[in-house]
Each structure stands twice: as C-alpha cells, then as structure tokens.
Amino acid sequence: MRSLAVIALVLGFNVILSAAEHTKDSLETVKTNLDGKKAVLIDVREKEEWDSGHLAQATNVPLSRIQKGLTAEEWDKLVPKDAIVYLHCAAGARCLKASDLLPKTASELRPLKPGYRELLSAGFAKAEK
Predict the structure, then answer these.
(1) For residue 114, what are the contacts with CB-CB under 8 A and spacing of at least 6?
(2) 57 assigned to some structural domain
(3) Residue 17: its pLDDT value, please?
C-alpha cells in the first residue's frame, strides 16, 4: 500500500488510499444482524441522495459530516454500544473512507461493498416516503 502511495505521488495521481476493507459478511448475515438488533446500518451518502430514496433500517450520516469531524460522543449517540455498524453508500467506496475517518469506539465498523441499489435488489426494504 505504501509503495502505491509513493508511486501515485511521484506520478502526480490523486488517489484515495484506505486501510478499511469491505466486510466478508454475506447480505443474509447483515439482514439477520439488523433484524436481531445486533447491528445498525449507516448510510454515508449525502442528504440529497438520501432524500431521493434510502433503506428503511438505515440512519443517514453523510461522509461530508464525518469528514468535518465527528466526535466519539456524537458517534455514541447514534450507535448503541457494542453494535456492529454496517456502512453503505452508492457504490462501496465512500463507506470505506468513512470507516477510516469514524471515531474508533467499541463499535465494530463493517463497510458494505454493495451499494444502495444493489441492497434494494437483494431484498433490503426501501423506506416509505
């Protein structure tokens, strides 16, 4: 990873490097954990995207808000202690960045590779307007 960053710097590429990885949990496991209240789902898409449609079980915490700095106290108000936190976005990249930026608390962060539309196709419920 470090050599990639050096190469990108030398060549002048602007790349986003992330230490986070997408969860290996199956979508069935994600659903089970959400339904059993063992996990929460955080949508890191921006408010305009959220307003155009979101998952029923999700809470919106936009990446732009996270980038401005979210304290551990603010995060703890959003997320129950010891909950698994699944992060999702439109295509899987922003949730990795969010995972790197969020306060490291007792919550276990698990970014999802499938994006919003893929989650809908997999049977996650869309919120009613």
Answers:
(1) 27, 88, 92, 122
(2) yes
(3) 52
In a domain, 4, yes or no: no
Q: Return d(Cα 107, Cα 51) in angstroms, integer.
A: 26
How many domains are contained in the chain?
A: 1
Give pLDDT, residue 18: 56
Q: What pTM did the predictor assign?
A: 0.83
Instruction: For residue 31, give the CATH number of its domain.
Output: 3.40.250.10
- Parts of the chain with a pLDDT under 70: 1-18, 105-106
- Write the single-letter amino acid at 56: A
Neighbours of 40 (CB within 10 A): 19
- In tens, the pLDDT along 93-109 reads 999 999 999 877 657 89
Q: Encode burial over 82-120: b for 16+ CB neighbours within 10 A, e otherwise.
A: ebbbbbbbbebbbbbbbbebbbeeebebbbbbbbbebbe
- pLDDT for 1: 43
DSSP-assigned beta bridge partners for residue 110: 86
DSSP state of 55: B
Q: Tell me the C-alpha distance between 42 and 61, whole Å.
A: 6
